[in-house]
Amino acid sequence: MEKSNKYMLAGAILAAAGVSLMTYTASRYTSFRSMVARTLRLEDIAALEITRLSSVPGEQKDIVVTDPEEIKRIYDDFSGVRLMKSARNVSTGSKHSYYITIVQADRKQRFDIILKGDQHMIIYDNDMNNPHLAAYKIINTFQPLALQQVFA
């Protein structure tokens, strides 16, 4: 093989590796908006069934939010969240975690979200044709104040 052909082959291999790495890296990052808001409009949400889980025994609390203004405040808090795929079994130093079921107006439960502290989120998409679960690390500053306020 000629020397120039070797360089061309090496260049092609490096380019393919670079494209593969960029594709892999890009597929790891997403947002709450692209995972949930792209398939479910705010107007389609009839209720949020929320369970606040606690590391302290006896402090679990369940509520159902049906007020459209409260739903909007919670939805808006989550809309800006940026995510990176991570392991499903993550521990959190936070006292509370939240389990949220988004109930649509037609009574379908499309998404289940587990919020572990303010650092990790697990999203289960109950899509009939392609249900899937993915765990994420929250990579921007996130404070779910509206969510915390409904339990105050």
Brief summary of the model shown:
This protein is α+β, with helices and mostly antiparallel strands. The protein has helices at 3-28, 32-37, 68-79, 145-149; strands at residues 29-31, 45-54, 61-65, 82-85, 96-104, 109-116, 120-125, 132-138. The radius of gyration is 20 Å and the shape is elongated.
Side by side, the strands of the main sheet go 1-4-8-7-6-5-2-3
**What is the percent of helical residues?**
25-40%
What is the radius of gyration?
20 Å
Helices and strands, in order, run as HEHEEHEEEEEH
**Based on CA inertia axes, which overall geometry fits?**
elongated
The helix tally amounts to 4
Taken as a percent bin, the fraction of beta residues is 25-35%
Poorly predicted tracts of residues: none
Structural class computed from helices and strand pairing: alpha+beta
Using DSSP, what is the number of strands?
A: 8
First-last Cα distance = 74 Å
Summarize the biggest pleated sheet.
8 strands, antiparallel
Average of the residue pLDDT scores: 80
Description of the molecule:
- The model has no long low-confidence stretch (mean pLDDT 80).
- The radius of gyration is 20 Å and the shape is elongated.
- It has an 8-stranded antiparallel beta sheet with strand order 1-4-8-7-6-5-2-3.
- The chain contains 4 helices and 8 strands.
- It is of the alpha+beta class and 152 residues long.
- It has helices at residues 3-28, 32-37, 68-79, 145-149, and strands at 29-31, 45-54, 61-65, 82-85, 96-104, 109-116, 120-125, 132-138.
List the helices and strands and how they pair.
Layout: H1 3-28, E1 29-31, H2 32-37, E2 45-54, E3 61-65, H3 68-79, E4 82-85, E5 96-104, E6 109-116, E7 120-125, E8 132-138, H4 145-149
